[in-house]
Amino acid sequence: MKQLSFLILFYLFSVFSASLFAQRSADERITLVGSVVDSLSGKSVEYPTVTLFTDSLKLVRAVAGAADGRFTIEAPEKGSYFIYVSQIGYVNTRKEIHIDGMQRRVDLGKVEIREGENMLREVTITAVRPLIRNEVDKLTYNLEADPQTATSTVLDILRKVPMLSVDGDDNVRLNGETNYKVLMNGRSTGMIVRNFKDVIKSMPASSIKSIEVITNPPVRYDSEGIGGIINIITHSRPSGYNGSLNLGTNTLGGFNGGGYIAAQAGKFAISSNLHAGKFVSRRSTSASETENFVSEEYRYSSSHGESKNQSMFYRFGIEASYEIDTLNLLTLSGWGYLGNSLGVGSSFFEARNMNNQLTRKYARTSDSKNIFGSGSGSVSYQRTYKKPDQNLTFSYSLDVSPEKQDATTIIEPELNYLSYSQRSINNAMGYEHTAQVDYYDPLSNTHQIETGLKYILRQSISNTEVKLYNELTDEWVLDMSRVNDLDYNQHIAHVYGGYVFKKKVVTARAGFRGEYAFNDGLSKSAQGDKEFDNRQFNLVPYVNFTFMLNKGHMLTVGYTQRLNRPGIWFLNPYVNDVDPMNISYGNPNLNTVVRNAFSVGHRKSSQKWNLGVNLGAFFTTNNIERISRMDAEGVRHSTYENIGKNQRYQLNVNFSYRQGQKLNVYLNGGSSYVHVSYSESDMSNSGLGFNGSLGCNLMLWKGSTMYANAFVFGGDISLQSRNPYMYRTNFGMNQRFLKDKLTISLGITDPFRSKDTYRIDYLDSTFKSHVEFTQYVRSANVGASWRFGTFNANVRKARKSSSDDRMEGGNSTPNR
């Protein structure tokens, strides 16, 4: 109470003193206004940091500009000043101004800054980075403004990104959908596409600059991805010979470490990175109870078991550019990822008849080893012209993705079941060739056009061996009746065209994308070879209107279509029967899914806060659903089918508030109503889903920041199941030393509980089932990072090279 009384008295005294001084100071203050633009394109630079200094370099004040680059800052009196303008990805710019005091409002006009970064030695400028930026066609989450980045993985950060959620099995959802495209720096790489879940659980967040969420992608992006696009932007490090080293570990036994370095010699620049680490999941338990509607002998069944797993990963990348001259740029890049996971588990199964008498019982142990990897390489040539932003780009990329699964299962029966030992090996290889040409031309300040062509060849090979152990000969014998192989080719030809019209407060975008896909494959089994092929053509429209209203309000209205072409994981007929009572396999006869997407969004930005509200309606008639059915022997078979009619209505809200560098608060929330039905039966499901997050970053003292976050998610609907609601919390802090070059970070996840139980119910005309998974979630982590650098370098990249999406079925491996 004493402290509160003191604060009230101090506040009243301050107000009284300020009122006495206000008359004189108001007469002397001068308002400076202006806008920050790109020196080449003339376009506004979003959210610049503008700092005012006296002519003796004494700091007066700093402000953050608006989304349209405009800023307002006050000078205390007439005189000479310096204006410093900074923004991430641009060279800091200084402008000297002289104020004669004749006017109380001075328009500085347009302040130009150019791309690249440069630390001015005369003065240190601290940029006020917004955590979340609501832009015309995307939402950007800035990891450089999040202190949790220093000790976290990318998966931890994705929980905080608006419109994204992470369920109890670490599957990332975009607007409630697991079907979306994942890009890295605007293009796809096999590393991210085919091993997304594994990569984000092990990749340090400090290697990422920002994450973009694009729910209504323009026509230059491929149409694949029902939910939209997640674009992960890595550090381009355009500030010269510099680098970083990082190291982290946690109480679960995991660790990660790596480094980055960049250098430049004349017109040639190169950057490379290397990261390695280990992800550990402590012992988790599972239990299930099932009622089989089509069997009297095995009417009721139950199982319980436990498992644990760990995985290692190694990731590397290299990027180089050669600036032939000011109008011609050649860029080379390569990525690689190699990982392996080891898992062991045991379970017990029993079944009872209608009279609750025991009819089957056995124990199962399993040991699995998966090796997976990918390599990506690309080359692009960009020709720019004297007209700002006009460019022509040619690009080619190749992705290679090997994978091997090796699982051993041992069955020890107690009643009415066979004893056997089985080893199942699946070798898969994927190749993807992409050739593309893009052209962009800003005809005038009012009219802009873009167009392009693309060809993609996807080749997938899967070979399976199933071996049974012969105790008499002590050998593993190949079971020829279990041959299950696939050779698959997909050819896709694209053409797109887009037009942009800008007039005062209205921006209209329209375009189309024509995509022709030809698929042919050969499925090999003991019953014989089966060839299959299909041809499909889709003409995808895109329309978007943006209205810049008064006082920073922006309204967007859009319509487009999104496609889901099933990938190898959904098509592969490989039978996974590690658990003999739960068998899963792909379906090579799946067709492309078409979704109609309508969206309305409102955004408001100011120097201290941002607000975004988005409404969406999505309709699909042939959605791919994971379907499980049970037979009379009590075996559950799971695969994928085009049987879902899906209607989704979505509301997303995101809000962030920042008080300079001292405080940053954010709130994200999304709610959706989903109705899924199967037209050829009475199967249907509907309900509300929700995801949300709340957090804040607080500066404790110079160089020290604390963060706290809370998350809730769940309720997502599929044709046969409904996901539960779950929550998660984490807290931490970091401290910077040695002129911010060294950062030490501490964090804790779920300090209030040691484990979490994930419950889900399944319902079908053949069975109903209740499943519970329990896993240990509490963990603490510590990390350190070191930044170094001496001179300036800029690894330039072709701006519009291969804005590429890869096929679904790779961004997250389906549950099997």
Instruction: Provide the gyration radius in Å.
Output: 29 Å
Shape: globular
Beta-strand portion reads over 45%
Structural class determined from secondary elements: mainly beta
- Outline the low-pLDDT stretches: 1-26, 117-127, 791-796, 799-816
Instruction: Kindly report how far apart the N and C termini lie.
Output: 60 Å
Number of helices: 5
User: How much is the average pLDDT?
Assistant: 82
> How much helicity do the residues have?
under 10%
Q: Characterize the main sheet.
A: 22 strands, antiparallel, barrel
Number of DSSP E strands:
42
Question: What features would you describe in this structure?
Answer:
The protein has 816 residues and is mainly beta. The chain is 6% helix and 63% strand. The chain contains five helices and 42 strands. The strands form five sheets. It has a 22-stranded antiparallel beta barrel. A five-stranded mixed beta sheet has the order 8-9-13-14-12, with no helix packed on it. It has a four-stranded antiparallel beta sheet with strand order 3-2-5-6, with no helix packed on it. A hairpin with a 3-residue loop joins β33 and β34 (663-677). The termini are far apart. 39% of the residues are buried. The model is unreliable at 1-26, 117-127, 791-796 and 799-816 (pLDDT under 50).
